[in-house]
Amino acid sequence: MDLLDIKNLDVVFPTRRGTVHAAQGVSLTVAPGEVLGLVGESGAGKSTIGNAIMDLLEPPGYVGAGEIVFQGTDLRTLDADQMRRVRGRKIGMIFQDPQTSLNPLLTIGEQLIESIRNSLDMTEADAKQRAIQMLGDVGITEAEARLKSYPHQFSGGMRQRVVIALALSGDPDLIIADEPTTALDVSIQKQILDLIKRLCRERQLGVILVTHDIGVIAEIADRVCVMYRGRVVETGQTAQVLGAPNHEYTKSLIAAVPRADMRLERFASVDYIEGGEAAGRKIDIRTHWLGAARADATEPEETLTVENLNLSFVLEKSFFKSKRRMLKAVDNVSFSIRQGETFGLVGESGSGKSTVARIVAGLYKQDSGTVRLLGRDVKGSWSDPAERDVRRRLQMIFQDPFSSLNARLTVMDIVAEPIRFHKLTSSEAETKQIVQDLLDHVGLGAQAAIRYPHEFSGGQRQRISIARALASRPRVLICDEPTSALDVSIQAQILNLLKDLQAELNLTMLFISHDLPVIRQMCDRVAVMKQGQIVELTETEALFDAPTHAYSQSLIAQMPRMDLLEPV
Amino acid sequence: MTTDPTPHQVASRPRMWTRIRESDIGYSFFRSPFAMVAAAVTVAFLLAAALAPWIAPYNPFDPAQVSLWDGKLPPSFAGGDERYFLGTDNQGRDLWSTILYGGRLSIIIGLAAVFFGMTLGVVLGVVAGYLGGWVDTLIMRVADVQLTIPGILVAILINGVGQIMLPQELRAEFSVYVVIFAIGLSDWPQFARVTRGAALVEKEREYVQAARVIGLPGWLIMWRHVLPNVLRPVLVLATIGLALAIIAEATLSFLGQGVPPTTPSLGTLIRVGQEFMFSGLWWIAFFPALTLVILVFAVNLLGDWMRDALNPKLR
């Protein structure tokens, strides 16, 4: 018998502007000892399913119709008291962010023991024994001593292990894991996924794994449900769904996943998502204002060179030099980017890759070392006209599309700002025409100019950011995790756009990402960073085929395996 | 295929009134009876203040219209003279007219003082938050020191010094400006603190970084990018600050520190009136005080609602 059997579930959110059906006619089953992957992009309703099972829907949302049969009982017929007994004892939940799912004021032991006694009726001593055993089970060594630690004394991965132990403390039969590894680095992701899979097998748990990441699905799911706008569009064995998808949406989604095993020229053109490919390209880049600054003979072969860059942040201030605690964020970093090349910086969080980008962009000032841009040493001043002219030719695209645009300005004013400030055109009419051309060219349409940023989705906002960066007529573009806040299909579009623009304008790019498959698709050469240092710098293909440094090897090995995907 | 799903709608944006009604803040407003009543009362007070010379039956500052023989008459509904709805004060001025004119003065002083304090505080707050370093330290320490003394004491001090520095013959004429200056100057640290906090947050946001990469100078980034994005909390503070400034003015005038009795504000009226309380002439103090309470209450309710409506955490 199935552990969980959801039949025709409807979840309804009444709002001011009409009723939103977050889930419509969703049916799925989970068997004991099985990992069911629930995959979809933002707004697909995948988290809603988990919350509906737990009866934890945010008001005003409610279950409109359908059955949620768990171990033979329809959970919808239970009252609040009975439901509370199901939560924790029968069904456990793992949340995305281990920072916020533990109480920072209580020790790990207090939280575990309280949770165990709550659901299992044990004495304090027995509960403590069980807590120690649970921590051992999820791979925390010296469990007895660690019981007295507070959450902040654990690293992110360890904290997520504790969260898993908490979810298991009531000895549940079903675990709902909502994006359990999204906040974690790739090396820790692998460990956590392995842990979930092992516990699932050993204890014959049913697991619903909610994620946006096809790589995670490929790694541990036995079966997959693909969701799109509140509906399940495809269900099946993981190998079948990823390898030979039936539904058009699944095909699009999988085509958009950056592949780690080979480099493609472009991502396949993706339908079935907002926007679609930019079709409104009317301008001829060679004759247009935008293309006028294409590389000419004066541009040096080495467009951007960084030599012996160092930057330390002060962790603890002190009057005495010897007592100050410093963090070396960038440690003797040197590299050189050739004209028209895309150079990747890859590393885990805290490796210093974004700090390097910010030094190059002039947002941070280095302690020592030089940045040479278009043949000129950049000192970080805007007052020298010659240096200003060089620095204008370097622009940056940021990670978070929701904070990178000023909400109080129209798109016209946002994109026109660099043109107006640097007086790159002769008249205001010309400026407006160029802004409209730019918006057209990045795939938004000239009509976007009169609107405000909040009227656009994340992917569209990132297009606005790109248009703003192009408005300075740059020669060098820094992309700092430009797609890591976006859905995978939108990511494919934006990466395609960046590739096209680079080819058209012959741009030089510094591309920063934590995502190895994206790096493989975008970069010609790549530097691997760890703790502020470059540990390996090589051709991208060489890095993926035969990494030489031990750290690069482990990074490559820990990438989610995508062997299941259909070959291109 | 175009990414713009509704190109035709863009050309004809909804009319302003529809946009306000449909916005989150408008939605919240039209579903909050308290906010609507408070707004109506506040608007009524503002209108009365603006139109006082036209709607007041008498001009209390015109000696020709005031007769000492009519002094201390009770309100018409309490057995007084038909001509004087709320009665008259000790000098024979029509109390209803005097309240209209006094309320007008109170509101003008309140608005001007808040505007002065807000401008000063917001400018200093944005500068402190955005520049940081010793500028920040200097501005915020001055604010901290000032905040250790109750605002009304600061206002009394500044007002006292200001009045004394004026030549005797100009004192009556300029006392209103001195009061505005004093209240505004006692109020700026609140605005500076709130603005600085918001500016610290905005400064780290990526659109400010983008503006720096474009090469915009600091003052332009502060003006175009930081300032418009920190004004929300300031708006709330200014509304509540208006109520406080009106009270501060009334307090100053009640203590005899504010505007002179020849051009009475609500505070002056209450002070004059309370001298006659024990003689049974209750109306001279009661009606100005009631006016003050209703006005301040309405403005406060409006500010409270605005704080909730503009706070994304409470939605």
TrEMBL record, chain A:
Places the protein is found: Cell inner membrane
Gene Ontology molecular functions: ATP binding; ATP hydrolysis activity
Keyword annotations from UniProtKB, A to Z: ATP-binding, Nucleotide-binding, Transport
GO cellular component term, pick one: plasma membrane
Keyword Lipid biosynthesis: no
CDD domains with a match to the protein in the record: ABC_NikE_OppD_transporters (cd03257)
Domain (ABC transporter): residue spans on this chain: 6-254, 314-556
PROSITE patterns: ABC_TRANSPORTER_1, ABC_TRANSPORTER_2
Annotated Pfam families: ABC_tran (PF00005), oligo_HPY (PF08352)
Membrane topology label: Peripheral membrane protein
GO biological process, one term: peptide transport
Cited NCBIfam families: PRK10419.1, PRK11308.1
UniProt record similarity statement: Belongs to the ABC transporter superfamily.
Official protein name in the record: Peptide/nickel transport system ATP-binding protein
Automatic annotation (TrEMBL), chain B:
GO cellular component assignments: plasma membrane
Gene3D superfamilies assigned: MetI-like
Topology term for the membrane: Multi-pass membrane protein
InterPro entries in UniProt: BP-dependent_transpt_permease, MetI-like, MetI-like_sf, OppC_N
Keyword Transport attributed: yes
Family recorded in the similarity comment: Belongs to the binding-protein-dependent transport system permease family.
PROSITE patterns (alphabetical): ABC_TM1
Organism expressing this protein natively: Rubricella aquisinus
Name of the protein in its database record: Peptide/nickel transport system permease protein
Localization terms from the record: Cell membrane
Record-annotated membrane-spanning stretches: 34-56, 105-132, 138-158, 170-188, 208-227, 234-256, 276-303
Pfam family, one: BPD_transp_1
Keywords: Cell membrane, Membrane, Transmembrane, Transmembrane helix, Transport
Keyword Cell membrane part of the UniProt annotation: yes
